Amino acid sequence: MKMAPIAVTPPVEQEPTDKLTVNGIEQGLNQTTPSLLDLQPISNGLSDIITKGAINGTKISNGTATPLAELDASLLTTTYTTSPRSVPAQGSPEASSSSVCTDHMIQAKWTASHGWHAPSLQPYGPLSLMPTASCLHYATECFEGMKLYRGFDGKLRLFRPELNCNRMLLSTNRIALPAFAPQELLKLVVKLCATDGAKWLPRDRAGSFLYIRPTMIASDAALGVQRPKEALLFIILTVFPKMDDIPTGMRLLASKDDMVRAWPGGFGYAKVGANYGPSLVAQGEARGMGYNQILWLFGEDCTVTEAGASNFFVVWRTEEGKVQLVTAPLGDRIILDGVTRRSVLELARSRLTAGNEGLEAIEIVERKFTMLEVEEAVKQGRIMEAFAAGTAFFVAPVSHIHFRGKGLDIPMSEGVSGKYTKTIKEWLRGIMWGNEQHEWGYVVEDEGK
Question: What is the residue range of the signal peptide feature (predicted)?
Fold first, then answer.
């Protein structure tokens, strides 16, 4: 399948303030994937992250500089399983366990002496790591979350996969892992989906999906806090339950002053494992109290950031009478530049700013806002609805927020959702499952192996 080049789109326009991190990321890029030097800036407004004309990214052999091998999907080797796995029934405990993977996986090794080795498609199975592997000790690991959809038109689709591949490059840069050309990662993702999609998402399961998890770990078997000299990229497909169908809406517990998820100058904008493990204590506390997720706040003014691992939106009416869709900005690099977040904003800007389908015209706002503002809007009856948005939870309406000992009820005018939330969700669902032919829907030709 011929694929168009991927534009590497910066998620935000702001210049970074931590120049030490910028310089370190630039050095890592120069040392691992020199072809990226010819691309536009990659991530998070790091406008100086790539400098044309740099001559790093090489190894020395017999006194002569030669380029390190770059990730190349055309070198993929293929070994199909001889022990096919069973596809669990929809709605079964096995299907809901999030632990059942498809028949195959893709792996690609990187070493500092060679660069990227030829990737392989092979039977799904365990990884082999030494107990001293860097990822086990220093959190040198990052990943992406994507979905493969079986459309109502019978086709397999990805949703804006180039954005996930670009973001994974951002994450590997931040966590000192080797760089790669995003379009090569996309080709590998497509190959795995084409191989296992027909069996695991049969045509009679229209409207279902598989979860895609591209991951990179530092497999360097040497203790020591240093840039890894060996890494492993792997891609798996997992049977995953729907998480957005909560009849009563999501109930959120606002985080307390003694715990934050991310901070300016940190790595909240990158999809690294170190963002998630430390949040599990608070998440467990929330669920133990009957809430679905933590609503992460930051600073003394209780600035709203994310809802669990999803972006958070409110729809409210201003004191001047305008209807606004409001979400936190990306400038401080505290929150993730979510693909669903970006898509919600783009659809809202193109379809709702002048009103649509009986909905009042809405203003789209990306700015810092606080829970004190949300609380005041609830008291004044100006809150119209709220929702969380991300790959896992999709678009999940929020019905209640607990903040500083008080319960704030969020209206759901459509019974299980607000009007704007319902409309945006239906638009996205239509694109993902082929009811609307849209450039965001990336069709995968299944091979049926």
Answer: none
**What is the spatial distance between Cα 412 and Cα 100, in angstroms, rounded to a whole number?**
35
d(CA 376, CA 319): 11
299 and 314 assigned to the same domain: yes
Is residue 439 in some structural domain? Answer: no
Q: Using alpha carbons only, give the angle 36, 37, 41 rounded to the nearest 5 degrees.
A: 80
- The region that residue 333 occupies, defined by phi over 0 for left and psi between -120 and 50 for alpha, beta otherwise, is left
Does 243 reside within a domain?
A: no
**pTM for this prediction:** 0.89
Check whether 397 has a pLDDT greater than 90: yes
Structural domain count, the chain? 3
Mean pLDDT of 104-113: 97
Q: Using CA atoms, how far apart are residues 203 and 191, in angstroms rounded to an integer?
A: 19
pLDDT at 27: 65
449: its two tokens: 């192996």
How many CB atoms lie under 10 A from the CB of residue 111? Answer: 17
Residues in Cβ contact with 327 at an 8 Å cutoff, skipping those fewer than 6 apart = 311, 312, 313, 314, 341, 345, 365, 366
The structure tokens 């945006």 sit at 424
Tokens representing 303 are 């600035």
Same domain, 211 and 279: no
Cβ 240 vs Cβ 271: under 8 Å: no
**Does the pLDDT value for residue 35 go beyond 90?**
no
Is 144 found in the same domain as 199? yes
Provide the residue type at 342 as one letter.
Answer: R
Q: What is the mean pLDDT of residues 59-73?
A: 72
Close Cβ partners of 254 (under 8 Å, ≥ 6 residues apart): 294, 295, 297, 302, 371, 401, 402, 403, 404
Q: Residue 67: exposed, middle, or buried by beta-carbon count in 10 A (0-12, 13-18, 19+)?
A: middle
Rounded Cα–Cα distance for residues 103 and 282 (Å): 35
Residues 222 and 134 sit within 8 Å (Cβ to Cβ)? yes
**Mean pLDDT (whole number) for 82-106:** 95
What average pLDDT does range 341-370 have in this prediction? Answer: 94
